[in-house]
Amino acid sequence: MSDQLGLYRFLARFKVFKRSYIAKVMAVAFLGTHVPLLVLLLSFILSPGMALGMTLRVLLITLLATLAGTVATLLALHHLLRPVTLTSKELQNYLRSQQLPDLPTEFADEVGTLMANTSQTLRKLDELIHYIQNYDDLTGLPNRELLRDRVAQACLAETAPPRLVAVLLIGINDFVEVSHAWDPETASLLIRSIAQRLENTVYPNNIVARLEGDEFAIALIDIPSFENVIKLAQLLLSTLAKPFSIHGNGIHVTAGIGITLEHLSDRNGIDLLLQQAHMALHTAKQQGRSRYQFYSPEITAQLQERMLLENELYGALDRQEMRVHYQPLIDLQTGEIRAVEALVRWQHPTFGLVSPGKFIPIAEANGFIIPLGEWILRTACAQNKAWQSAGLPPIRLSVNLSARQFEQADLVDRVRETLQETQLDPVHLELEVTESALMNDMGRSINTLNDLRNLGISLALDDFGTGYSSLNYLKQFPVNMLKIDRSFIHDIISNPDSAAVTNAIIALAQNLNLGITAEGIEDEGQLTYLKTRGCHEGQGFYFSRPVPPEAIAPMLTQALQPSS
Q1: Counting beta carbons within 10 angstroms of the beta carbon of residue 85, is it exposed (0 to 12), middle (13 to 18) or buried (19 or more)?
Q2: Domain-located, residue 303
Q3: DSSP letter at 426?
Q4: Is the domain of 422 the same as that of 511?
């Protein structure tokens, strides 16, 4: 490249031309155009007389000198323009192949500044592009690509044997709901604070990266022991559970961690590790908050089954595979049927009867629970009206509302339309909501409950005792009934803690003049215990499993017959 800048470099030695590229060009142009005239003038000066031959000679010399001067000028200008053409060429090379330019930076005139600035700008641009491609712009942490590169560099040296790598994938529980509760700036600051806390928790040789959204990855190389991974997972969970102070607000979050360990032998193995850790994270979040889960092949099988069920679930209503079964709620003092709870069942043509425990969480996650819940409500209300039209005694119908349904802005209107469509008297409908569904937005929840109560229906607080269970909250909710979760009833005889919680809930309901229903009664001992404590209603396999609607009718008919 230096050889191509010979004339430019030569002229730059003269002080008068050093800082002006225009001066260089003008000097070359001046010399090139005036050399013929100078030669002609010199010829006249040196010639004593001008004969014809001499005149021709002068003209020939002038012509040749002019041609020579023109050629020399063009060549000189061509060389002087080399810095510009080289700069353009280097720009094109960078755009095509991201090859950084090798332009000189020692010249001080305009074109020298152009070359130096071009070289410097492209280098800064290259650094910026490298940063954008390899780092997360919000947290400054490496992204997925840089994580892969760094793990590969650490583990895949040609002479090194395969090294044990652990990948911990951290996901914030319910981050969408948390971010919606705050403005975008606060949500971004929370992500940054989480990233900083993760970096401060791990060792410097561990690799921390942000993959996307609320998911972070930590790669551990050369793990001393399996227990070290467990201790780090526990430390990360406890660290993230501490409140974050953002603009004076204390924000609480919890996380789940998916963990996988493998001897890494090729670059593609990094992607496999991330995939396995993601599956383990999904399982950890299903188990609850602040949980970690190691990957196992069984998790892959479970997720494959889940994906298959999810695909089949979308068309289940159209294929009329869903069924509503009903479980009686019994008056524990008289033994009479007071109500029935509507429970959905999925009768798949290939899989058979699919457990609600498998498909309800899927429906909750993908939003299918909203049309499914509306269908259950409409079907159950129509069935209750049909029983009444058949001359059976009116009973209360209890229907569960999912958290996703409860968040709908037009929930009250949808319930009102369903009652009008099925012509069911609102007094015969009870809607069940869980504590957790109400706690996302207390003010809105109370308004929605009041609007539902104004329709004439009754409300039950489901799974009471497993959530917040605060007396202060409970006094604000306009509910009619508390339902004791089956987890307390299951070992109420053998576990003093379950008995104490159950006794407290019954006493609380009595003091607030609320009805009380116990779920999951399975034997005589549980029934006797609850009766003596004053529990009003109960349901469970001891009385009846959930049954099709045609099996409920005989139970209600028997209730009409006088006892002998």
Answers
A1: exposed
A2: no
A3: G
A4: yes
Q: What is the CATH number of the domain that holds 533?
A: 3.20.20.450
> Comparing 548 with 435, which gets the higher pLDDT?
548
- Look at residue 157 in the predicted model and tell me its pLDDT: 58
Q: Give the percent of the chain with pLDDT over 70.
A: 87
Same domain, 277 and 377: no
H or E element at residue 324: strand 322-331
Rounded (10°) angle between helices 110-134 and 21-46: 150
Judgement on whether residues 430 and 481 belong to the same structural domain of the protein: yes
Q: What does the block give as tokens for 375?
A: 């269908």
d(Cα 101, Cα 97) in Å, to the nearest integer? Answer: 11
| Residues 399/422, Cβ–Cβ less than 8 Å | no
| Res. 413: pLDDT tops 90 | yes
Alpha helices in 288-393 (DSSP H): 297-313, 356-366, 369-389
pTM score > 0.70 for this model?
no
C-alpha pair distances (Å), 102 with each of 23, 118, 486, 545? 25, 10, 75, 81
152 CB-near residues (< 8 Å, 6+ apart) = 267, 270
Q: Distance (Å, rounded) from C-alpha 471 to C-alpha 505?
A: 10
How many structural domains does the chain have?
3
**Averaged confidence pLDDT in the chain:** 85
pLDDT for the residue numbered 397: 97
Phi, psi of 12 (to 5 degrees): -65, -15
| Alpha-carbon span 226 to 116, nearest angstrom | 54
Helix, strand counts (H, E) of the chain? 22, 16
Distance CA 475, CA 438 (A): 13
| Tokens matching residue 70 | 């023109």
Task: In whole angstroms, give the CA distance from residue 42 to residue 45.
Answer: 5
In whole angstroms, how far apart are CA 300 and each of 30, 276, 284, 307, 364? 81, 8, 13, 11, 21
Domain span holding position 459: 315-560
Q: Token pair for residue 423?
A: 């012509």
pLDDT by residue (tens digit) across 113-136? 888 888 888 888 877 777 788 888
* Whole-angstrom distance, CA of residue 233 vs CA of residue 239: 10
Cα gap 326→332, rounded to integer Å: 18
Question: Cβ(455)–Cβ(416) under 8 Å?
Answer: yes
Could you tell me which of 186, 175, 150 has the C-alpha nearest to residue 165?
150
Closest among 303, 308, 260 to 283, alpha carbons compared: 303
Indicate the pairing of strand 249-251 with strand 515-518. unpaired
**Tokens describing residue 109:** 């005139």
DSSP H or E stretch at residue 496:
helix 496-511
CA distance 288 to 285: 5
Is-contact 259 280, C-beta < 8 A? yes
Mean pLDDT of 2-11: 72
Pairwise pLDDT comparison (3 vs 464), residue with the higher score = 464
54 and 8 assigned to the same domain: yes
What does the angle CA 424 – CA 425 – CA 430 come to, to the nearest 5 degrees?
A: 90
